[in-house]
Amino acid sequence: MQLSHQNHVYQSIARATKDHGTTTMFGLMGDANLFMVDSFVRDFGGHFVPAAHEGSAILMALAYARVSGNVGVATVTHGPALTNCVTALTEAARGHAPMVVLAGDTPADTPRHLQSIDQRELVKVTGAGFEQLRTPATVGKDVARAFYRAQVERRPIVLNMPADFMWQEAEYDLQVLDVFTAPGGVAEGEILDNAIGMIASARRPLILAGHGALGARDQLIRLADRLEAPLATTLQAKGLFNGHPYNIDIFGTLSTPAAYELIDQSDCIICFGTALHDFTTDRGKLMKGKRIIQIDINPAAIGGGLHPDAALVADAGLTAETILFWLDEAEIPASGFTRELDATALTVYPAGSGKAADDFINYVYALERLEEALPKDRVLVTDGGRFMTEVWCRLSVPNPQSFVSTVSFGSIGLGLQEAVGAGLAAPDRPIVLFCGDGGFMMGGINEFNTAVRLGLDLIVIIANDSAYGAEHIQFLDRKMDPSLTEFHWPSFVDIAKSLGGDGFEVRSNAQLEQALEALKHRKGPFLIELRLDPIDVPRMRI
Q: Is the pTM of this model over 0.90?
């Protein structure tokens, strides 16, 4: 439906959001946003996904952005609705998610409103950006500015919408700031010359790609083949080099023993689109004695983890092409580093024993079996907890866009919400969520029914050690009683069924096979509860 040029503000916000390509909006309605949501759905044919908690709406939009490649959009009302989003906004900001959050605000002429807070200051502490809806006449410009900043700054931008504007009228003015029609910068100058010199003289070069290099797969492979250099990724780029014979998979503390040794032997690491987190570099240990070249389009990513020998603020793909061109021009020979490598051994983790105490299943064995049995076209989502690093290592993904980890802020309890967002972004693919028992109790119960209502093809696997595992192991390490970390949870399978899904409890290898058989006949969200011995869960690889 097309409205007249003279619209109510709530209609103009909905219209501007749709004009920026938004088809799906996540949120929770309240005084300041309910009419905008209604207009988005009824006037403009948008899809609104109602969450059970405001923070969940942010997380759903975050995962939607990650999997779809589009700007995620969420909406909440004012005051406590926005304070409920602090952890989620921080997760999204640290995860560099391009998002717009349409947040209502209390009427400006009611300073003693019960739900009035300084929303700008609240948003700032999360690392998200803030935009103010200035007047009814500037809606088009203000919405455009929020979408522009979300894409350029790659973080959530909260557009603050005063409730007293909503029924005012003003002419709608379409504004779209299109700034992504040209590729990013190309490296040049003396620093590029120095970087090429380091690469040319390297005998054991290695290429490392992060999330900022997801669009440069082909160029990086061509450069690696020319150099005869292995390829590795950070966690956030997991799956980028699938199928390449010298892909060593994740670089850092999550590497296989053979890959870790190979990285240690390298003499030059060419890093594209990664800020070189401590876990990637193993707190700098993997980078010692090597030439480090760091290429990133984002200047803030350079030098944060360590000081590189050469830093180029430039586009990953174009820079790889430039380096390749000059290597060919100078007739630099290939390094030969990959000629003697056993590629198979580089990506194989030690197998699990399959042994476990009575009434428990061995976690590593279960993961190996799930890797074989789960749908291969899955989108993999992981919540936070000590179970997660084994999942990252042992579960494959088709590509980086099919992998969502919820640990940018180190929180637990965010996974199921992001699994819902991933499911909306990839409606024709199964979503596989790994979650701990504590994380499910904290956030999963809130939104499991949302997944049921939406009819998502969601497989939830609970690593249930009946404890807060990271804390449990600290007590054990100090020979202290860990009982304060242990819980007698209700049956997660019963919870799943009561919320409209289905499930299967697994305490043995035989029961795991029964669960996998039942999984083939699922008709909606399906939960597998792995009962684990808290003493037998592997330590985190960080």
A: yes
